[in-house]
Amino acid sequence: MLRSLLLTLTILSQILAFAQQPIKRSGKYLGQQPPGTAPAKFAPDFISLPDQHEFGSIFSANGEECYFAVDSNGKAEIRYTKLVSGQWITPITILSDKVYSYNDPMLSPDESKLFFISDRPLDSSSKKKDYDIWYVKKKGDRWSVPMNAGPR
Asked: What pLDDT is recorded for position 134?
């Protein structure tokens, strides 16, 4: 009886240990399989976290940078991660606001601009508006302040 209990516990511990393996955070596409026809959680416990909703992701042309939106406490923000020395860095928030949402990031073809939608107003009023297209310009490792993509 003790022998079969020990065997069962050993097998269960191996199953649990295998199931808890973190994602491979190296290589292109965050070490994940490219998308197929069946839905699947992307980069669990790294991009896809249990307390948030992720959407609108895009990779750079070389596959070494990833931008994605996250619904955090009812507000969307844009996060970023990149491949450094073969490992993906912990995602950082690059666009966020206390009042307004930023979501659906999209890179320009030359990757010098990051386009997104936001409900921020065109002027300095604090009133939210319908979503409009905005962008930021890349300046080295930094981004400019958000600019509206509409007519000036």
From this structure: 94
